[in-house]
Write a structure and sequence with these properties.
The protein is an alpha/beta fold and about 280 residues long. The chain is built from 11 helices and 11 strands.
């Protein structure tokens, strides 16, 4: 089948290979079983456009059918992560839209986060420099965040007369750093430094800027070589259990773990342990 830009190579049964995916609005490459997505407008600190939002949404949605993507790294080029929505390509046009048009846009941006959270692969954000507005939400919507001491993460919506409740921020940020801290950041729009972000639990850890990409890729490759079906189940349960009581969560986890016990990876791990060998997981 001929490969088209912006489309994965389709296989029977909706399964898709992403080795040759050609991104239109950011850069994309495969490192083994890891998809590396780089926002690549460094001269503007990697802002998002209507088109890049839509392509990110569609790509993360399609990762659910990927045969060869086991983990994802999301990063930015030129020493910055993402400065948010492009002032000229997004903010200006939004001032001219009617309410149905505005709601269509805000739902689309929220769908990016939904797709990131719904894809079975762990998503690791490698964050340096500016991480602002919608860029901060891309970081927040990732499963893990590696940063640098020079990071400046800011939820800037109040600075432009908007509420901090954008793309799921009021649901996700308090769970990560606490209600009071989240309220401060979402209402003041001030920047959270890298060391502060690590101390508050926003960043999993900080890296030297010249080692950030390598550390994020190493973490992603380690996850990709593990029991990826089980990783996907862990991610799913972490998110589903937000709205469960403890007893309900225990039952849900009993069912999820029983499913994992029926996988070949579980049996491989047992036989490798008996043979005193390292298991080789295949995600089935």
């Amino acid at each position: 089948m001929k490969h088209l830009a912006g489309k994965p190579h389709e296989l029977p049964g909706n399964r898709q290979s992403f080795q040759a995916y050609q991104a239109r609005h950011f850069s994309y490459r495969m490192e083994g079983a890891v998809a590396v997505i780089s926002l690549n407008r460094p001269e503007r600190k990697n802002p998002l456009t209507f088109d890049s939002y839509a392509e990110l949404r569609d790509l993360f949605r399609n990762f659910a059918y990927a045969t060869d993507v086991k983990a994802v790294v999301l990063t930015g080029e030129g020493g910055n992560f993402c400065s948010g929505g492009d002032v000229h390509d997004i903010i200006g046009p939004l001032t001219e839209l009617d309410m149905p048009g505005l709601l269509a846009f805000t739902r689309m941006t929220g769908d990016v986060i939904k797709a990131m959270r719904a894809c079975p692969q762990p998503v690791i954000a490698a964050i340096d420099g500016i991480c602002a507005g919608a860029g901060a939400l891309l970081a927040l919507g990732s499963d893990m965040r590696l940063g640098t001491a020079r990071c400046k993460t800011a939820f800037l919506f109040s600075r432009v007369g908007l509420a901090g409740c954008d793309m799921g921020a009021c649901a996700m940020l308090p769970r990560m750093i606490g209600q009071g801290r989240a309220t401060e950041l979402l209402m003041t729009g001030r920047a959270m430094g890298g060391e502060e972000g690590e101390r508050w639990g926003f960043f999993n850890r900080l890296c030297d800027p010249d080692q950030l990409s390598g550390e994020a890729l190493k973490l992603a490759l380690d996850l990709a070589s593990g029991p990826t079906f089980a990783h996907g189940m862990t991610k799913k349960m972490l998110q589903q259990e937000w709205n469960m009581g403890v007893d309900e969560a225990i039952e849900a986890e009993a069912q999820a773990q029983a499913i994992c016990m029926a996988t070949n990876d579980f049996h491989r791990a047992y036989h490798a342990f008996v043979a005193k060998q390292k298991p080789v997981f295949e995600g089935d």
